[in-house]
Design brief:
alpha+beta; five-stranded antiparallel beta sheet; globular
């Protein structure tokens, strides 16, 4: 299997939940619930009945941007693909995972997202270790590996690799800033502590290393 990559797993909500009067009733979750391996993330994405129900509810609201965002932020668990953190802040990194997150948004349909899932997985330059369809069904998330040993500065190494990933993806798959409807690469993935919402995708793709010999 893949080398042991660890991510921080957070329970919802990612931002404070407010009542009808705008008063905070549930604070944002800033401390991770536990650490997960990438294989454990894949198991949740493909096999959690609860995540399936939550994803279906969020996807049903996709046409209503405000309601979709509310459901996604208040009900879905999430991970930090770049590594493990003691607190959801970039200066609280415990250990890098050697992964960057690539997020393609606002695709035209679920069918296009499913085609892009395979296209990203088969990209010979990226070779992502995990790819799944986003909660709304119109996007794709790819966990892309990089060389942890390239420089001694962990944060600089991660930042530089995220930059080059975004540049490659922009040229290869499109830039969300140059299309009115925002179709393409989501640049918020440049943040070291960028959160990635988990969503049910029974056909999520995970790269398995073939044993030598």
């Amino acid at each position: 299997m893949n080398q042991e990559r660890k991510l921080s797993f957070f329970l919802p909500p990612i931002s404070p939940v407010k009542d009808a009067n705008g008063k905070n009733v549930t604070p944002a979750t800033l401390v991770p619930h536990k650490e997960l391996t990438l294989e454990e993330v894949w198991n949740i994405v493909t096999g959690s009945p609860r995540l399936k129900k939550l994803t279906e509810a969020a996807a049903a609201a996709y046409g209503d941007e405000k309601e979709y965002r509310r459901l996604k932020q208040s009900t879905l668990p999430y991970v930090t693909p770049c590594g493990t953190f003691s607190y959801r802040r970039s200066d609280r990194l415990l250990a890098p995972s050697g992964l960057s997150i690539l997020d393609l948004d606002h695709l035209d349909s679920r069918e296009e997202a499913e085609r892009m899932r395979r296209q990203l997985f088969d990209d010979p330059f990226l070779l992502p270790e995990l790819v799944f369809v986003s909660p709304g069904g119109h996007g794709v998330k790819a966990f892309v590996p990089y060389d942890l040993g390239r420089t001694s500065d962990v944060k600089q190494n991660a930042a530089e690799n995220i930059y080059w990933l975004m540049e490659y993806a922009r040229l290869r798959y499109g830039d969300c800033s140059d299309k009115d409807k925002g179709k393409g690469v989501d640049y918020s993935g440049k943040d070291l502590v960028r959160a990635c919402f988990l969503s049910h995708d029974e056909r999520a793709l995970m790269r398995v290393k073939t044993p030598m010999g």
